[in-house]
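thread from #wetlab-drylab

HS: before we spend reagent money on co-crystallization trials with 1,6-di-O-phosphono-alpha-D-glucopyranose, can we at least see a predicted complex? here's what I'd submit
DV: go for it
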Amino acid sequence: MSNNSEFKRTTVQTTPHSGQKPGTSGLRKKVKVFQQKHYTENFIQATLSAMPGGCEGKTLVVGGDGRFFSPEATQIILRLAAGNGVSHIIIGQDSILSTPAVSALIRSKKADGGILLTASHNPGGPNNDFGIKFNISNGGPAPEEVTNKIYKITEDIKEYHEVDLPDLDLSKTGEFTHGPLKITIVDPVSNYLSLLQSIFDFDAIKEWLHNTNPKPTVLFDALNGVTGPYGRAIFVDTLGLDEKSIQNCTPSPDFGGGHPDPNLTYAHTLVEAVEKNNILFGAASDGDGDRNMIYGKGAFVTPSDSVAIIADWAEKCIPYFKSGVKGLARSMPTSGAIDIVAKKRGLEVFEVPTGWKFFGNLMDAGRLSICGEESFGTGSDHIREKDGVWAIVAWLQILAAANKEKPGSDINDVLMMHWKKYGRSFFSRYDYEECESAGAEKMMAHLRELFESSGFVGSDLSATSSSASFKVASADDFSYTDPIDGSVSSKQGLYIKFEDGSRIIFRLSGTGSSGATIRLYVEKYSQDESEYGKDAQDGLKPLIEVALKVSKLQEFTGRDKPDVITVSRGARVGGARRDPDMMC
Ligand code: G16
């Protein structure tokens, strides 16, 4: 045991690195950028300096998705945490903890915050992305007030503080002393697994999985991300399923060379296996485990529908919600499917900007139980992050309950049942990745100017290939005033709402590491039952044409097709239908 005074804090002179502004969810850059001299140290120092209430004597959780550069970044954090007077660090074994598991640990250990080493769904490896995110003591992503402070500090940082410590062996769990720090290295899965066991009725899921004839087939794909061990603990060890029920479950620093984003394009390993083997329930999660995709044979559940369906079933079958659901919420571009559930159930519903951090205050105030985002994020107030594995288990719970009501129900049946009850929100998102930033900014400026021009509201916008036209009811830049603390977040996405209730939205992604990614979202609501079984792509075509025409996207960016299309029951990549028979 060493005396704290033996470990001298030293101050290292540094100069600012430009561009350390946290995006939608932390700072994400290429690994090579983080490897520059003092780059990571500057950002960690700024984070520690910006911690609400200071970091002296505090406890922090450190973990991440295990991507390339995580071990090095962890050692830097330990040296700077010691240099800044942090007293206790809780780390996942080998520096691995999913984002939801970090949130759960911060809450259950009453830590003062956490540092997450992840660029989420972005690819990893020496030539790809790394990321650092700070979460506050409620377990959720730091609010803008804190991230703005971090950025401001990075802009004129002159020094950082550290204790010169040798690298700590991160492979053994237990309690250690590391210089002046108390270190606890935890098993990444156990705390999180106990939380899920307290939320769900695993026996009911097991009963459905094992005592149904024929047995429902399940496939979970961790896309070589952090949820591999969590998936194994749940599907194999807890639910007693075969090894064949999980795939790509060994976390790898470069995600096996893949893109760990659970959508129809990047999670094609899952989609293909589900279709080929007639699997009833397929699910994937992303690099750091906060996103999810639900996909059964011939049935893709849009994230917007997924959260609405979970909200609708929660009280009925998930023990955590037995005493009632407090309120619901979605991000602005997410379809209004959850609003309709809220309305019919007499619940409050909130529309917040894109970013999970905007849900935290509502949850802390006891006004929000279940929320989601179109970007494959779904979660509840059990933690303060979106939670991919939670959503996947929620769907298993719903299917178990649906099968009690109507044996043989699959994902398609649950979807159809929902639409028959509430109507269907057709939704699609087009992603134009890594566009030239100047062109993307010009396109947004053009739209803003157009919105302000007289006569735009009330005008008719027509499609190119049909006679369809849409009357503009309103058009604006989304701004949000947090109902709890009154903080205002402006410029959160450009929307046009039409008189028939449909919408188009443009946003620049806040999670890319280079260039600008343009996201175009379109939504149309229908209560015409004859449309429910249709591929959304067809019904949304006129709206998409209007969006492309009004934004002059091709003119400003030179792009004539998106890189990824997310659409209910269909996926097109680079404009080409991947396999319509398979998808619809
Ligand atoms: C992050 C945030 C999400 C948000 C998403 C949006 O996701 O945590 O709340 O919806 O970014 O991404 P973009 O700005 O690119 O549209 P993640 O999974 O990357 O942490």
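DV: The two ends are 64 Å apart (CA to CA).
HS: ok that's useful, forwarding to the group
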